[in-house]
Predict the 3D structure of the following.
Amino acid sequence: MNGGSMCMMKYSTTNRDGYREYKSNPQVCANCPTRALCTRNKDFIKTVTQHIWKPYVDMAEELRYTERHKRYYKMRKETIERVFADAKEKHGMRYTRYTGLAQVTNWVRLKFAAMNSSFCKSLYFLYFCPKSIQNPSFA
């Protein structure tokens, strides 16, 4: 910060955990009167990290509050979550008898193949093709 105003931070690197690191200019921060509010680093460098997927998470958050999404979210309990409930109750997916990722994956694929009926296809159209609700000729 410089005189109470924000300074630009330059991109430094992306770490192994998928976070971009931005660092401040130490020459600007060394003379800043409000430096103690930003950093106590002895080298006068402030580091900020941001995950590489952060812009996409922000876009999803914005979409969550649109009227269209609110309308479809109300139908979720009747459609999407119903599939998971059926999987648990009707297809024995509350527990698994297998151990290991490969065995459980194969078992789940077999169960979902059995569940793949016209009902599941209608859920796809309901959620991803909203015009099919208004005009059934699209479905």
About this structure: The radius of gyration is 25 Å. The chain is about 50% helix and 10% strand. Strands lie at 10-14, 19-23, 47-51.
